[in-house]
Design brief:
Helix content is 32%, strand content 26%. By secondary structure, it is an alpha+beta fold. Helix 1 crosses helix 4, helix 2 crosses helix 3 and helix 6 packs across helix 8. It binds biotin.
Length: 326
């Protein structure tokens, strides 16, 4: 109920009477008063004026369970939210929740991670109070081979959520890094649990650099954050809610065909390396070619110097720009 009160107060932008809150949520005056008291304790600035009711005075977000729930405008993606002040890793927690029966759409969010995980066994720096770390649980009913496309769906959603929230153009470096101005602002890690050829669950984790911060020397030249790029404060809960909204739309489209035929176009429009020379780091032998966008299964098409085209599968190789990160 607290999240519902919060969204109503925010939506109204004016006083809402105690009577209206009681009627809407079918609870007593005392219950409303208690809920308001708890929200205030969490840091929400709610004014109470006799004969007028309650008003949300400050609009700056208080990142946490209720802020996230009250901003989530989706049917299923991001429901329920499981928020933690600190976790080892939202991916680890999401896998645990999925094993315990958490429904599809459950979103695990943390303010900080003590063992944030990146791809290829690397770590993911996850300080408190500045960034967005979240993992979505899916329980799809298709063959495990299609899972790599889900990260591409999330990449599209994150890029769109960033543009929607911050007004800056976010691009995708195939398969799933999000870049702004040639620098990485978000990374994703998808993990799959399969039993006897069936998917038990998929968890898709994303870490978005949001607030102004110093990056460690190894990534200082290739990383950026949203607040540096858009020059203002970025509300993390709204960002996550916008990403979930975009994810829900794109994932439902993906499910219609179980491939990227419907999503290829919006994906290619955001593809930073489209039409550029790229180096494919194939363990069987590196090569250079021109990136031509993705095909309907999400592979990157690369035109080789002899004119032939190779479809590069995300799980096997990485692609770099020949002059740097993109
Ligand atoms: C990369 O190496 O680019 C992937 C980074 C993925 C980081 C996110 S943060 C939320 C989720 N939890 C983790 O432990 N990792 C992912």
């Amino acid at each position: 109920m607290k999240s519902k009160i919060l969204s109503l107060l925010r939506e109204r932008g004016d006083y809402v009477s105690g009577q209206e809150l009681c009627e809407r949520f079918g609870v007593s005056r005392t219950a409303v008063w208690k809920a308001i008291g708890q929200l205030k304790k969490e840091g929400f600035s709610i004014e109470a004026v006799q004969n007028r009711g309650y008003r949300l005075a400050q609009m700056e977000e208080v990142f946490g369970q209720h802020e996230l729930e009250s901003r989530m405008g989706t049917k299923w993606a991001g429901h329920p939210v499981a928020f933690f002040e600190a976790l080892d890793s939202t991916n680890i927690r999401a896998k645990l929740e999925a094993e315990r029966g958490a429904p599809e759409g459950t979103l695990v969010v943390a303010d900080m991670q003590t063992a944030g995980r990146g791809r290829r066994g690397r770590g993911w720096s996850s300080p408190a109070g500045v960034n967005a770390y979240f993992t979505l649980i899916l329980k799809p009913d298709f063959e495990p081979g299609k899972t790599s496309m889900l990260t591409l769906v999330m990449a599209l959603a994150v890029a769109e959520g960033i543009t929607e929230t911050c007004g800056v153009e976010a691009c995708i470096k195939w398969p799933n890094d999000i870049v702004i101005g040639g620098k990485k602002v978000c990374g994703m890690l998808t993990e799959l649990s399969v039993q006897q050829e069936y998917i038990q669950h998929v968890v898709i984790g994303a870490g978005v650099n949001v607030g102004l911060q110093e990056f460690v020397p190894e990534i200082a030249d290739t990383a950026t954050c949203l607040e540096r790029e858009c020059g203002r404060k970025v509300p993390r809960a709204q960002l996550i809610a916008n990403i979930m909204k975009a994810f829900e739309t794109y994932y439902e489209k993906f499910l219609e065909t179980l491939d990227f035929s419907e999503l290829k176009r919006p994906y290619d429009e955001r593809l930073v390396n489209c039409g550029r020379e790229v180096r494919v780091m194939d363990p069987k032998g590196e090569y250079t070619g021109i990136s031509k966008g993705i095909n309907s299964t999400g592979e990157l098409l690369v035109e080789r110097p002899d004119g032939s085209e190779t479809a590069v599968y995300a799980g096997e190789v990485s692609v770099r720009g020949i002059y740097g990160y993109v």
